[in-house]
Amino acid sequence: MGYIELTVLNNNVSPLAMGIDLGTTNSLAAVWKDGRPLVIKPEGHSSGSVPSVILLPEQGENTVGHAARAQAIVDPRNTIFSIKRLLGRGLEDVREDLKSLPFPVVEDAAGVLRIQAHGKEYTPEELSAMILMRVHSLCCRSMGGAEIQKAVITVPAYFDDTQRQATRDAARLAGLDVLRIINEPTAASLAYGLDQNAGGNIAVYDLGGGTFDISILSIEDGVFRVLATGGDTRLGGDDFDRTLVDLVLDELKDKLPREELEDPALHLAARLAAEKCKCELSEHPEAELHLTLPQSGAHLRLQVTREEFQERVAALIERTLQGCRRAVSDAGLEPSDIAEVVMVGGSTRIPAVRDAVAAFFGRLPHTELNPDEVVALGAAVQAHILTGGSRDLLLMDVTPLALGLETMGGAVAKVIARNSTVPCQATEGFTTYADNQTGLDFNIVQGERELAEDCRSLGKFKLTGIPPMPAGMARIAVRFHVDADGLLKVTAREESTGVMASIDVEPKHGLTDNQVETMLKESLIYAREDFEKSRSAGLKTEIGGMLLATKKSLAGVRDLLDRETCLDIDEAIEAANKALSSSDGKVLQAARDGLEQATGPLAALLMDRVARSALAGKRLDEV
Amino acid sequence: MALCPHCEATLETPLCCMSCQALLETEAALSPFQILNLERGWSVDPHELQQKLLRFTRMVHPDFFVGAEPRERELAERHSAAINAAHTTLSRDTTRADLLLNELGGPSEKDERQMPQAFLMEVIEWNETLEEARAQIKDPATEARLQELDETLKCERVKILTAVGAGLTPLPPSGAAELLEVRRDLNAVRYIDRALTELEVLRLEGAAS
C-alpha cells in the first residue's frame, strides 16, 4: 500500500563503518552503535561469527560459513578453510600447513598460491574476499539493509608487509573501502576501554585459531601506544587440535589400511572431533574424543583427561611465553611492570593457557569479554574514530619486523628497526659501483636476521635513469615510508642531480595492481547478477508486506471507498500475487508500483482518519 | 616563534597549528628539536619528550584525516613520521649526541673512527673475554665471566656517557675543536653497546646449550 509518512524522531543514525575480524577459523563484524561497539547478530543466530570456510561446488554459487562447514565432511577437497594461513605466502612458507589441508594448492609462475577446485583456481585473496563479502552482507542485513562500505580490517600484529597487502587486496576484491588495517591485539586493547582506568602498561595475549600475537602497550590520556609486539604467525588453536588429531591417528595406525589412513575425509573428521574434545576439556576435567570413520562408519571413542591434554600442549604454551618474554623486554619492561593483561582468541579459554599467562605476569588476566568477539569490537571502535566519531582516543601502533635492503655480499642494511612507531620513515644512502652505471637493483627485505637470504624478500626493484658518472659518485637515497596501515612504500632518488628515478616493485607473493583490477572487473559482473538477485528478493518481501497491510486495512474501510478505487485495488492485488512467482526484477518492480498507485486513495483515507483520531485524543494504535 | 599562516596563533611546532588544527607545509629538513619544540641541548626531560610526542601526534595522526583530501592525508603521514623519528632520535642518548654533533658541524661517525686512547687497552681485554666465552660456551664458568663483563661494560658506559654529556653542556660553539673528543667518546659508547648485544646473544646461546 502507499506509504503513510509520519514524522518519527530518528535516533537511529546508521554507523558509517564497520570493524571486521578476518579470522583463520571464524570471521566477525562489529559496528559502533549508541555509544559503544556492538557485534551484530543476524536474527535467529546466537553469535554473529561466520566460520571462515568456503564450499566451492562444481556448479552454482559458492557457500560461505556454517553451511560450508557442515559440508566439509562430505566434500573435503572442495571445502576451503584456514585460508588466512595462505594469505600473502609462497609455497615454501606453507609446506607445513599444507600437510593438514586436504585441498590442492599450487604456486603460479609469479609466486602466488592458487587453490584448486573443480578445475578452477582461486587465489587466497579471492577466497578471503568471499568470506569478507559474507560477513559484510550479514552485518548490513542485520542492520536493516544499511549500506556500510567502509571497514577497518584486523590482521595479526606479526603479519609482514606481503600478508598485510594481501589482506587489503582481499578487501578491495570484496568491494570494501578499507579505512585502515589494524593489528588484532591493538584492537582488542581498545575493546576493553582500558583508557577509563588509571592507564599504565598493558599486555594483550592473543592466541587465535592460527596465529599467536603478544603486544605490550602503554595507555596515557586516551593514547594507546604500542611499545613492542611479537608473536608467531604459525601457532594457534589449530596446533592444539593437531596434538589430539595425532592421538587419533596413532590409535588407528595399525588398524586401518594405508589408503584409508590418508583419506582427507578421515583427517577432517579427526580435526573436527579434536576441536570439539578440546573445547569440552576447557569446561570439564575429562572429555571423549569421538569420531565416526568416514569409510567404514565405525566409531572411535577415546577418553582424554585435562592433564593428558595439558601435557601434549605444554610445549606450545611455552612457545607463547617465550614470545611474551621477548616482547616485554623489547618494551624495556619487566613482567611485573604490566598493570593489566587482556586475553584474546578462542584458545585463551583453555585453562592451562590462562594459568600459564597468569603465572608469567603475576596477575589474573581480563577475560570478561567474549575472546572471540573482542577483536571485532575493537575494530569497530577504531572505525568510529576514523570516521570522525572521536578524537579522544588514538592508537599508535608499531611495525613488527625490521625493514631493510640487501647490500653487496648479501648482508642486510636495516633501514627501519622492529617496533618502530608507525607512520615512520627513514632514508638509506647508496652509490654506484661501476663507472657510468645507469641502474641499480634493490631487494627489499623484512626480518631480523643479518643475511638477506634468512629474511623475507618483499620484492625487488630496479632504479633506472641514473645519469652516467664515475663509480661511487652517485648519491642515491632510498626512502622507506611505513604508513599507518603498516604498509611499506619505497621511493628512490639520485640526489646529486635531483633525478627522481622510476621504481617498479614486484610483489613476491602478492597480486599486482593489474591482477587486482582484472579480478575486480570480473567480480563486478558477478556483482550485477548478485545485485539483481537481491533486488528481486527485496521487492518480493516488500510486495508481501504491502499485500498483507492492504488486505487488513481494506477490510475495515472498503465501504468508504468508491467502487472504481476498490476495483483498481483488487486488480493490483491480483497482479502482485501473480508477480510474486516471477524473479524478474522489472516485473516485480511494475507490480509493486502498480500496487502503490492503486492503494493511494486508501492511504489518503487512512491518513485522514489517523489525523482525526489524533485530534479526538485517541492513541494512534487504537485507530 | 612563527605564527600560523591561517589563524596567526603562535606556533608550538612548525608541523601544525594547535589552535586552528591546520596541518602546515614545511621546509625539507627540520631539526628534531624544532619539530618537538624542545630547547636544543644534551639534557632532555623524558617526561616532557613523551608529552610533546602525544600532544603533537594527537593533532597530525593520519587517523584523524581519513576522509581528508589526498594532500592533507599525505601531510599527516609525513608529519606523524617526522614526529616519531624526532622522538626516537631524542629519546636515545647515543642518537641524541650524534644529532648534536652533526648539527654543530662536528666530525661525523665516518670522518672520525677513533676511540679515546685510554679506552683502547680495555677494549682489547673485553674482546678477549668475549672471544673466550664464544669458544667455551658450554663451560659452566663462562656464564659467571659474562656476568662480570656485563657489569663492567654497563658501569663504563655510564662513565663515558657522562663525559659525552659534559662535552655537550653547555653546547660548544659550531665547529669547536672539542667536538672531536666528544665524537671519540661517542664511538666508545657505541662500541660498548655492540659488545653488550653480542654478550646478550652469547648468554642466550649458553642458556640454550
Description:
The complex is a heterodimer of chains A (about 625) and B (about 210). With about 625 residues, chain A is an alpha+beta fold. Chain A has four domains: about 20-235 and about 315-395, 2-Layer Sandwich (Nucleotidyltransferase, domain 5); about 235-315, ATPase, substrate binding domain, subdomain 4 (Actin, Chain A, domain 4); about 400-510, Substrate Binding Domain Of DNAk, Chain A, domain 1 (Sandwich), CATH 2.60.34; about 515-620, Substrate Binding Domain Of Dnak, Chain:A, Domain 2 (Up-down Bundle). Helices cover about 35% and strands about 25% of the residues of chain A. In chain A, strands 1, 2, 3, 4, 11 and 12 form a six-stranded mixed sheet that branches. A five-stranded mixed sheet of chain A has the order 18-13-14-15-19, with helices on both faces. In chain A, strands 22-21-25-26-30 form a five-stranded antiparallel sheet, with no helix packed on it. In chain A, α4 (about 160-175) links the parallel β11 (about 150-155) and β12. In chain A, α9 packs parallel to α10. Chain A starts with 16 loop residues before the first strand and ends in an 8-residue tail after the last helix. Chain B folds into two domains: about 1-90, Orthogonal Bundle (Helix Hairpins); about 115-210. Chain B has helices at about 30-35, 45-60, 70-90, 95-105, 115-135, 140-165, 180-209. Chain B is built from seven helices and no strands. Chain B is elongated. Chain B has about 210 residues and is mainly alpha-helical. Classes of the chains: A alpha+beta (about 625), B mainly alpha (about 210). The interface of A and B includes residues 180, 223, 385 and 396 of A.
